[in-house]
Amino acid sequence: MIEEKKDLLVLGIESSCDETAASVVRGGREVLSNVISSQIALHTLYGGVVPELASRKHIENIDTVLRQALREADVTLDQIDAIAVTYGPGLVGALLVGVAEAKAIAFAADKPLVGVNHIEGHVCANLIAHPELEPPFLCLIVSGGHTHLAYMKDYGQFEILGRTRDDAAGEAFDKVARAIGLGYPGGPKIEKAAREGNPHAYEFPRGKVDGSAYDFSFSGMKSAVLNELNRAEMKGETVVQADVAASFQKAVTDVLVTHAMSAVKDLGEKRLVLAGGVASNGALRAALDDACRKSGVTLYCPPPILCTDNAAMIAAAGYYRYLGGQRDGWDLNAIPNLALG
Ligand code: KG4
Ligand code: ZN
């Protein structure tokens, strides 16, 4: 049983992909500032995240973002109790910028350093959005690099029930968006296009994985979209972008909802926690909400701004790791394929 420290101030730093972010969170759950500098405009030029450019942009931005986070929270670095930083998973060069910055500040200001798993951070966004929420609970984590059904047994303790065998849900959104000419960032663009489309225009496969009720596969669905585009092109047919977007989004949503609800049922859970960038998708939220209501399950989900990458979620996760006694040394390193649990 962890003893909460409601006044503890954690400075969170996040730079695992294409957002440079810093945040001050009090008592693990109260956001005093949440500054996010997005690199979308830069990467849009190339149709996706260019790792080398992402690292350089993080270096350019991180000091300004950190200063702004402290200023908006109206605190000085001296008042901060711990510095939490994402050290994986993510792009190695991008992660290194945040880790090096966090180490430098922690060393110079003589503050404890706490390394945080980015995926755990996504789950902890829910602790901010729902102050009464405490583990254990079942969670569905859907981001650009990961798709997991996991059981959060306690703060910082996860058991993975299912994971994707190929593409992550967000990755599939991004690849399909590129294929149908919507470009980057794929998820929000597909969601927008899908509003004008017919979700029943195409019946894309709902990938199943042999031998596992909870593992996911999205590459078959993505290939089916590409095959449909090729077939139409060869026949000289025009493809309605909005219909493909809506049908694909429906297929992804169906798979996520089916998997999550069978885990809820099998484990006899009454709560389901949704997390990750794809969790900001309105159609997914609505479908899960509907399924949960019908089963008497409470769905927890952060607001969209806390679903996509941010540093408040890293500070929240760091707070609980700090309370659990975690202190990292100056040898903390970026781990691009860091696992959850
Ligand atoms: O969690 P996140 O911000 O970064 C990672 O940790 O990967 O997730 C980014 C992913 C991208 O693949 C993006 O296309 C997807 O989340 N995403 C969405 C939406 N907003 C972001 N997918 C579907 N609908 C959205 N509205
Ligand atoms: Zn993320």
Lateral arrangement of strands in the main beta sheet? 3-2-1-4-5
Might you state the CATH topology name of the largest domain? Nucleotidyltransferase, domain 5
Largest sheet: 5 strands, mixed
Strand content: 15-25%
**How large, in whole angstroms, is the Cα Rg?**
20 Å
- Listing every helix as H and every strand as E from the N terminus to the C terminus, the arrangement reads EEEHHEHEHEEEHHHHEHEHH
Portion of residues within helices: 40-55%
> So what's the overall shape?
globular
Q: What is the terminal separation in angstroms?
A: 19 Å
In total, the number of strands is: 10
The helix tally amounts to 11
Q: Which ions and ligands are bound to the chains? A: 5'-O-[(R)-(carboxyoxy)(hydroxy)phosphoryl]adenosine, zinc ion
Shape-level CATH architecture of the largest domain: 2-Layer Sandwich
Highest-level CATH class of the largest domain = Alpha Beta
Q: Which structural category fits the helices and strands? A: alpha/beta
Number of domains: 2
